[in-house]
């Protein structure tokens, strides 16, 4: 499972702080109070929910609808694709990114490759509720993503989750790719991919560290709304939500 106690969205820049504050205040006042109830699910129930969805007639199903088969998408920044991590191929580059001080401050995975390897193996050897991916832009690996079933994650204990809520964690790997709006463009593209390929998913969610204002701003600019502040084990997070129901209003070209 992805971490819920360290920010996973560092290195994104999408606008001035004034725009960020205005967006947060506006979204917070319009949030549905009923959706911010603290829902805590026992670990046993979470496990049973996952098992029930994975096995239908004795066949194990993919909890995230085949992320590796979603294919490329054209964005304003170029052709982008999520490629599921292969440890033997991708560990060195992901570990190098994790040791960037700007990334390590929120992910807390700095150190030898074994630290990152343990984090990745937990997901790769798990039940499929979290899929680690490289973000490849015009053929170049440049970001790391985790797509996860938020309704089956410990995060579900901290907000009123709905079935098939899908979470996103992101880091931009190269310093050269930060601070120029790439985060916003790619977050919008990946949220669209989730909604296009996961018809049962009504919401895409994220929980960046509340202190990581560039990340929160990028989510706001990508069509997410500020939903609530949530206290996770090691951070106070900004719960961000992008609703399928609002998609056609924000981007009329999408259904």
Reconstruct the topology from this structure.
Blueprint: H1 17-29, H2 43-54, E1 55-56, E2 59-60, E3 73-75, E4 78-84, H3 87-98, H4 101-107, H5 113-124, E5 130-137, E6 140-149, E7 166-172, H6 182-197, E8 203-206, H7 213-221, E9 225-232, E10 235-243, H8 247-250
Parallel strand pairs: 7-8
Antiparallel strand pairs: 1-2, 3-4, 4-5, 5-6, 6-7, 8-10, 9-10
Helix pairs in contact: 1-7, 3-5, 6-7
Pick out its properties.
single chain; about 260 residues; 8-stranded mixed sheet; alpha+beta; 8 helices
Describe the structure.
The chain is α+β, with helices and mostly antiparallel strands and 255 residues long. The protein is 33% helix and 24% strand. The protein has an eight-stranded mixed β-sheet with strand order 3-4-5-6-7-8-10-9, with helices on both faces. Strands 1-2 form a two-stranded antiparallel ribbon. A hairpin with a 2-residue loop joins strand 3 (73-75) and strand 4.
Concise summary:
With 255 residues, the chain is an alpha+beta fold. Helix content is 33%, strand content 24%.
What kind of sheet is the major sheet?
8 strands, mixed
Estimate the global geometry from the Cα principal axes: globular
- Strand-pairing-aware structural class: alpha+beta
SS summary, helix count: 8
Number of strands: 10
Low-confidence stretches: 1-41, 45-61
Radius of gyration: 17 Å
Q: Could you estimate the helical fraction of the residues in percent?
A: 25-40%
Indicate the proportion of strand residues: 15-25%
């Amino acid at each position: 499972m992805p971490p819920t106690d360290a920010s996973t969205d560092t290195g994104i820049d999408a606008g001035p702080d004034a725009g960020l504050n205005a967006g947060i205040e506006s979204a917070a006042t319009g949030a549905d109070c009923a959706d911010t109830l603290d829902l805590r699910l026992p670990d046993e129930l979470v496990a049973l929910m996952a098992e029930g969805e994975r096995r239908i007639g004795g066949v194990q199903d993919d909890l995230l609808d085949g992320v590796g088969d979603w294919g490329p998408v054209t964005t304003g920044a170029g052709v982008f694709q999520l490629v599921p991590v292969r440890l033997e191929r991708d560990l060195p580059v992901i570990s190098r990114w994790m040791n960037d001080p700007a990334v390590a401050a929120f992910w807390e995975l700095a150190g030898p490759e074994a630290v990152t390897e343990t984090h990745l193996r937990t997901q790769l050897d798990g039940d499929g509720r979290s899929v680690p991916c490289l973000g490849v832009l015009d053929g170049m690996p440049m970001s790391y993503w985790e797509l996860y079933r938020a309704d089956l994650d410990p995060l579900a204990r901290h907000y009123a989750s709905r079935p098939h809520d899908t979470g996103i964690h992101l880091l931009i790997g190269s310093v050269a790719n930060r601070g120029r709006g790439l985060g916003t463009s790619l977050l919008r593209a990946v949220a669209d991919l989730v909604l296009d390929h996961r018809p049962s998913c009504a919401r895409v969610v994220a929980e960046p560290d509340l202190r990581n204002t560039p990340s929160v701003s990028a989510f706001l600019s990508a069509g997410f709304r500020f939903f609530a502040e949530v206290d996770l084990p090691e951070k106070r997070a900004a719960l961000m939500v992008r609703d399928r129901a609002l998609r056609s209003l924000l981007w009329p070209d999408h259904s």
